Amino acid sequence: MAQVIESRFVCDGRYRIHSINAVGRRRGRIIEVEDVDRRERFHGKGAKLDRLVLRLLSQAWRDRQESAKRGAR
Which domain of life is it from (predicted)? Predict the structure, then answer.
């Protein structure tokens, strides 16, 4: 069965996430996280990479909320 590998940028292009999309009964999972500026790649267990990506996305969301508050002043 073929699987689709997807690459996407998060945090305004600072990080690239390589993942396998869910196909059929298989669930999607993250393969690696790359810091584009430093050119470092992070590998590991899927659960650990999921937690890392959730932390990155939540930090980016908080930063976006704070910048919107500062811009409204």
Answer: Bacteria
Beta bridge partners of 10: 15
Within 10 Å of residue 16's Cβ, how many Cβ atoms?
16
The tens digit of pLDDT for each residue in 31-67 reads 999 999 999 999 889 889 988 888 888 887 777 777 7
pTM over 0.90: no
Q: Which amino acid is at 62?
A: R
The C-alpha atoms of residue 32 and residue 49 are separated, in whole angstroms, by: 7
Domain ranges of the chain: 5-65
Distance CA 8, CA 11 (A): 10
Distance CA 41, CA 33 (A): 6
